[in-house]
Amino acid sequence: MATTTTIYPTDDTHIREPNASTNYGTGIYLPIGEWSGGRRHALLEFDVSSFTEPSDIVSANFSLTAISSSGGSTRNMTLARLDQSFVDTSATWNTYNGVDSWVTAGAEDNAATTQPTYTIEVGATTNQTVDIKPLVIDAINKRAGVLLLVIFFSAGASAYTTFGSTDNLSTPNKPSLAVTVAARISWTGAIDNDLDNDDNWSPLLSGKPTSTDYALFSSGSVSATDGGLECDTIFIGKGYTGSIENSRRVDCNQANIFSPESDISLNFIAAGQAQVRVGDCKSLALNGNYDLTISRCRSSVTLRTASVDRIDAHSSRVAFVADANVDLIRITDAKYTLDNGADSITATGRSYGYISATTNTTAAITVSGGYIKMLAKEVDSLTIYSGRLDFRKNIQAPLDMGAVKIYSGVLDSRTDSATFAAQSIVVYGGRLLLDGSQQTTLA
Description:
With 443 residues, the chain is mainly β. It has three domains: 3-181, Jelly Rolls; 183-299, no CATH class; 325-331 and 338-443, no CATH class. Helices cover 2% and strands 50% of the residues. The chain has one helix at residues 133-142, and strands at 3-7, 11-16, 29-35, 38-47, 57-64, 66-71, 75-81, 118-122, 128-131, 146-152, 159-164, 176-181, 184-187, 201-202, 214-217, 229-230, 233-236, 244-251, 254-268, 274-288, 290-294, 301-303, 310-314, 319-322, 326-332, 335-338, 342-348, 352-355, 362-374, 378-390, 399-406, 410-412, 419-427, 431-433, 439-442. Strand 3 and strand 4 form a beta hairpin.
């Protein structure tokens, strides 16, 4: 089973704008926010070098314990990686070691904001917890296991919360980092085809995976045709030749599918979107809450997409059918059929697609190569850089479009429709084909 280890800062301190040359490194509290006309930021350092397998980290929950608070309202502060080491017993608002200056006073501009940042709320006596897993992994891989953090904000309304520091005499009041490392539980199917059977998993006596474990299908040929699976991540590797069938119910954060001999049918039931990456499989059917990145499949993929926000398909080895509207679809070279369109479609390379919509509405389409057969009658906006979008034989007439821009390529609107309406049409170098009897109107 997964293990959770809680560690505490090796150093921490807060720095105050009104007392810009004063060090508070031995204080038992971290007052963070703004009060009496000045900001109060926090600096923390954790040693995460003992975690030697960063790829197995499931979560890393950074927590602050609130002691008291003040202010007329709550405010959000930013938690980020600090790009400068500091000396907790001499760091001040102006300097990181009592001598050398921050990029700008207060260390705000020493925050590595190009990496993930997080929100800490102040102004209420409420404990704060955020999962900073990417920063912990970054510290292990790139910074010799030294994790430096800064909590800051720009000047604004007065609000602050006093949290416990690492010098606090009460351990529960100290800042902490709870790092959960997944156990790797492998499917063997030693007893039967039921995912819920503990004896079908290895190591022996481990039981089936839990929500913080990795479920591995890395070898063997025993298929899973019954039961469901709860885990953090599923790995289906090249060495697995069985299948996961009958739309098995899966509650997970990620799924990585790379088996060329497996038929995979999954129904993702987690409240959030499972991130699914497909490098190879024999056949694939997906349903439920997921986002998909796919680079290869041996047959056309069947996607139930009522709860899907994003599909990325960037390979000529991909073909898929999506049955419901998707927020964002990006295609390169793949073949696709969209039974109910998408809010945003970008098709490039030698992609080949059919787009229809039961609601007769498809939002923004960008074409940069390839071919689209348009079977919906409404498009909010269309930009063609190259390639072709074809309305021919579209029986859902009349055609109704938003802004149309054609830089190169072809828009063929020739149908049996008497009317082709657009908000605007600008042709820079491509072609717009119209029926001779077709009436074109601009809004």
